[in-house]
Amino acid sequence: MNTALWIAAAVLACVALAAGAGKLLLPMEKLASAAGGGWTADAGPGFVRTLGALEVLAAAGLTLPALPGALPVLVPVTAVCWVLLMAGAMATHIRRGDPLLFPAVNGAYLVLAAFLAWGRFFAVPL
Questions:
Q1: How is 39-87 classified by DSSP, letter by letter?
Q2: What gap in Å lies between CA 119 and CA 101, rounded to an integer?
Q3: Are 60 and 95 in contact (CB under 8 A)?
Q4: H and E: helices and strands count for the chain
Q5: Cα–Cα distances in Å, from 86 out to 48, 69, 119?
């Protein structure tokens, strides 16, 4: 179980880091033209960049607090925050009428984050 939780944390951290870095570094026009990124055309640049920064912080929060001497409770707390973020992402894609692939992928990340939160809060705490 511990190995599965570490894999879930690593996958989510990679997703969060890649998504966050893209929102922080890519021009808004490029983000808006990317598959699934059309919502960024409706959002302000400050919101998109802030979301990107939070995603990069989430990548750190999913893994680094597990290091010895750190705050391990931040791992499941970050996973719960990721669940909320993915629920919002799903709602945004559905509201915009995007292809169902996008909310489905967000749903898969939501389930993975819920598994991580449950696992680190109750099954195998760090």
A1: GGGTS-HHHHHHHHHHHHHHHHHTTGGGSTTS-TTHHHHHHHHHHHHHH
A2: 27
A3: no
A4: 5, 0
A5: 15, 30, 18
For the record, the structure tokens of 41 come out as: 């055309």
| Residue 20 to residue 57: CA distance in whole angstroms | 9
Query: Do 17 and 63 touch, CB atoms closer than 8 A?
Result: no
Asked if residue 125 lies in contact with residue 72, where contact means CB atoms within 8 angstroms, the answer is: yes
Amino acid letter, residue 109: Y
Q: Residues 50-85: pLDDT tens digits?
A: 999 999 999 999 999 888 878 999 999 999 999 999
Residues 6+ apart with CB under 8 A from 36: 93, 98, 102
Between CA 39 and CA 62 the distance in angstroms is 26
Taking the C-alpha atoms of residue 12 and residue 44, their distance in angstroms, rounded to an integer, is 25
Q: Tell me the three state secondary structure of residue 16.
A: helix
Give the number of other CB atoms < 10 A from CB of residue 22: 16
- pTM of the predicted protein model: 0.94
